[in-house]
Amino acid sequence: MPVSPETKHVLLIDDDAEMRDRVRRALLEVGHRVSAFSSLKQATGQQAPTAYDALVVSLDWPASRNVQRVRSLKRQAKGVPLLLLCPPHRVDQAIAALRYGAEDYLLRPPDSFELKTRLDRILDRTDLTSRIAFFQDELSKRSGLKSLEARSPTMRTTLARVLRVAPMRSTVLIYGESGVGKELVARSIHFNSPRRNNPFIALNCAAMPGNLIESELFGHEKGSFTGAHARVRGKFEIAHRGTLFLDEIGEMDPGTQAKLLRVLEEQEFMRVGGSRSIRVDVRVIAATNADLESMVARATFRRDLYYRLKVVTIAVPPLRDRREDVPALVSTFLDQLSRENAVYRKSVTPDVMSAFQDHAWPGNVRELKNMLESLLVSVPGEVIRLEDLPSSVRPARVAPGPAGLRPGVKLEDMERELIERTLEHTGGNRTHSAALLGIGVRTLQRKIRTYGISIAPKRRRPRLRHALNPNSR
Predict the structure, then answer these.
(1) In whole angstroms, what is the distance from residue 43 CA to residue 177 CA?
(2) Integer Cα distance of 53 and 447 in angstroms
(3) Which pLDDT band holds residue 415 (cuts at 50, 70, 90)?
(4) Could you give the 3-state DSSP secondary structure of residue 272?
(5) How far apart are the C-alpha atoms of 35 and 48, rounded to whole Å?
(6) CA–CA distance, 443 with 445 (Å, rounded to integer)
(7) What is the pLDDT of residue 312?
(8) What sign for the dihedral angle of Cα 355, 360, 364, 370?
(9) Using CA atoms, how far apart are residues 128 and 338, in angstroms rounded to an integer?
């Protein structure tokens, strides 16, 4: 679809006043809006280059600065096409600038028809590229698979199970710590199922007060309670023929649990204050970071609802158990966040990537993504370095022990102390410690037994047997 020139706002930069006015008139004649300045500094004092649809810039600088200026322009005007205007003796510089992001060039002074043709062509191409990128991004969001990086064996098992259960109608219960991406897994199930063209509705049970969650789920009739000024459809009604995702299902109050059980069994419900049953076809996917089995034993979660929800279970591993996925996640998030924040896409150094892989990530994938967004918008330059990281992520330097490297110290004593300090540094994580020491986990475990090293027990949430077995039903 061709671009409408009337809607395009062009930034013109030329330090020659006579030439600037001539080009400005030519752009106005072909229907563009034009903001003309003598320098980029003057232009950016008004508004950012990213606010324009195209840049038309005179390439009449000293030859040694042309490529540098073009690269600087492309960094500041991320995604905005650049058309260069150059005098005949600068053509070689214009051609060189094409390799650094400029879309096209014209000789000064430009012919009006040629200017319109070239500018419309690059606007059309940029618009098409933007639309393709938008649709690809939307497709990846809908499928949910782009951010479910599966280089590690544990995540590959999870992803394989997601694709296997997606076509089914069964209720799914997703287990995992906070921040591992349980909603992303639920979206992946939905958008890889026959229901993909129908609604995916998410409700966080922990974020809703107990007296409102019933109305959120089932809707209410006008006048059913104070403030109910009109009939409102609930999430079940809105999700008809689609999927309803109930996050933090363990936080649901007992009364609503009983009503949810009836909907799961009968596929019908009544609005709050209503008298007519409404039938729906909704697939329910629930998620929790709690131990529902223990809650059932303590009578804080309904046993019948628990067994009705756990028809199919999927365990999402924490990020510390799938460190092989970290590099791909970092790359995916940097791409996504740079687009969303309209900032230059930064890279990370190898030691930063190593620090990311060594970090325990208690907040899991959510913590990684939030940290990358903070670094992306706060770190100057194009590269994120080790010193840019928060101290909690930077690797700690292990101080030499009292034994040191003095003559007469036994090799076993030095090895025992190194293992003890490494285990202390990793919080007792044997897998992480073995990687830092450059030995296998079994070798490390054998040395721990040989030296009688005691490890402080880690406080961890109980994990259910069926949640650890991806093939359980």
Answers:
(1) 49
(2) 64
(3) confident
(4) strand
(5) 12
(6) 5
(7) 94
(8) negative
(9) 20
Angle value at C-alpha 462, between 243 and 176, nearest 5 degrees: 30
In this structure, which amino acid lies at residue 104? D
Find where tokens 């205007």 sit: 85
- The 3-state DSSP class for residue 3 equals coil
pTM over 0.70: no
Taking the alpha carbons of 193, 194, 198, 202 in that order, is the dihedral positive or negative? negative
| HSE-CB of 110 using CA atoms within 13 angstroms | 28
E strands along 79-135, which residues?
A: 82-86, 104-107
| Selection from 290, 281, 287 nearest residue 310 by Cα | 287
Peptide bond into 109 cis (omega under 30): yes
Angle subtended at Cα 269 by Cα 266 and Cα 275, rounded to the nearest 5 degrees: 130
Q: How far apart are CA 150 and CA 163, in angstroms?
A: 13
Short-list 135, 141, 83, CA closest to 108:
83
Q: What is the 3-state secondary structure (H, E, C) of 26-73?
A: HHHHCCCEEEEECCHHHHHCCCCHHHCCEEEEECCCCHHHHHHHHHHH
